[in-house]
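Side project, low priority. Logging it here so it doesn't get lost.
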Amino acid sequence: MYKNFFKRVIDFIASLSGFIVLLPVFIIISIFLFVANEGKPFFIQRRPGKNGKVFSIIKFKTMNDKKDADGKLLSDEIRLTPVGKFVRKTSLDEIPQLLNVIKGDMSLIGPRPLLTDYMHLYNEFQNRRHEVKPGITGWAQVNGRNAISWDKKFEYDVWYVDNLSFLLDCKIIFKTIQKVIKSEGINAEDGNTKEPFSGNF
């Protein structure tokens, strides 16, 4: 009952209420990023949702689009703006995703939606992460986020699918608040963002 009905009800009420409360912060950050990113405060990208259905995720844009002499984007570390770094460190870049939750593409809690480029690389076990809606935070996020290996991440994601419950979601919310306060697991151990997934062959 919780998984098929109450979870969506809670998602809608909580995300709508949260967005209204955070609207002043949303506007302020949008203005700062509009200036820092030359008129582009938002990052919109296609991501796979429940059952692999693709949707457009929206986040605050924390990196600019600066390119090298050959026209290729510079490294993430160089393109990460000062305001973007702050927004990412405090997890404020996730605020726009409340709109995805309100719309129904995402849940507050679930496996993080990854790139569509990875979909053909998943084995049967890894693909099970799409049996539920993706979330703003999830079991993998509170157990390491970008600082854990891909194998461990998929293990945590599928474990969540198999053990989804109201109490587990409450535990994840509580641990997420702790992680945000401590700024833990934001980056991979050797860089600003996690290395791309290349599959397991």
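Brief comment: The chain is about 45% helix and 10% strand.
Revisit when time allows.
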